[in-house]
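Is this the right way to post structure tokens for a design question? Let me know if I should format differently. Anyway, here goes:
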């Protein structure tokens, strides 16, 4: 597998932290329960959450009482997570990456990478994952993927595709690369459906949380906001729209 061009991934979310924390979707309870059962996580299990960002998945894992090492290279996102999660006894925040976690050998039973694996060099990360995983451990790579079933879904996708700078590169399917990443172990794929309700400010904030979408003052921002306003008004019910997701999970057998 070729090394990933990270597009300065360690810094590109720095101006979007607040919107990311407020408006990015969470993950369904069924996913967390699946990970617990699949990885055989006891109450004292340790997990490395790679590319943990503002701690959306990290907090769900901490609520189960597990020890979670939140590995995040972006300082502003890491600080946002620390402000939110420092009260959990199992929380550790680490300035690291998928390629260099800073964790000891064989120190975690599960590695999670949520919305972040496409920023990681898979060859270097595979060596690092093998180093820090306990024998029989699991690596879970997951993405929240919007469905395209409704008129709103399709219109929102059109806005992302029209105004996103490198949207198609980030969204492309990576299954052949992921199969190779897990080899020689077999890879399983699972889906978990859930949804999110947003008013217009929430929808706007979610758009602006994406690293590939224009920010205020940048090219095409005003046109994007006009298209988003029209889409919202055409599809809102009681002042909200619903975004439906399939959380797609890749995990070794």
């Amino acid at each position: 597998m070729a090394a990933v061009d990270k597009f300065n991934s360690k810094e590109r979310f720095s101006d979007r932290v607040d919107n990311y924390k407020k408006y990015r979707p969470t993950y369904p309870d069924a996913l967390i329960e699946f990970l617990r059962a699949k990885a055989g996580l006891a109450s004292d299990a340790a997990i490395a959450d790679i590319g943990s960002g503002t701690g959306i998945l990290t907090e769900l894992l901490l609520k189960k009482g597990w020890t979670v090492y939140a590995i995040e290279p972006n300082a502003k996102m890491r600080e946002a997570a620390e402000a939110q999660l420092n009260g959990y006894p199992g929380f550790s925040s680490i300035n690291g990456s998928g390629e260099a976690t800073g964790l000891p050998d064989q120190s975690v039973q599960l590695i999670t990478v949520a919305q972040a694996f496409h920023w990681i060099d898979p060859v270097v990360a595979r060596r690092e994952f093998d180093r820090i995983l306990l024998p029989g451990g699991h690596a879970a790579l997951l993405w929240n993927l919007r469905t395209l079933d409704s008129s709103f879904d399709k219109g929102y996708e059109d806005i992302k595709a029209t105004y996103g700078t490198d949207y198609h590169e980030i969204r492309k399917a990576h299954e052949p690369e992921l199969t190779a990443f897990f080899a020689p172990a077999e890879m399983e794929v699972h889906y978990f459906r859930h949804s999110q309700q947003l008013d217009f400010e929430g929808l706007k904030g979610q758009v602006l949380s994406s690293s590939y979408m224009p920010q205020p003052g940048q090219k095409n921002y005003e046109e994007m906001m006009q298209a988003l306003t029209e889409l919202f008004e055409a599809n809102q019910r009681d002042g909200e729209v619903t975004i439906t997701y399939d959380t797609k999970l890749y995990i070794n057998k």
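Format looks fine. Someone answered above. Worth noting: The longest strand covers residues 133-146. Residues 1-15 have pLDDT under 50 and may be disordered.
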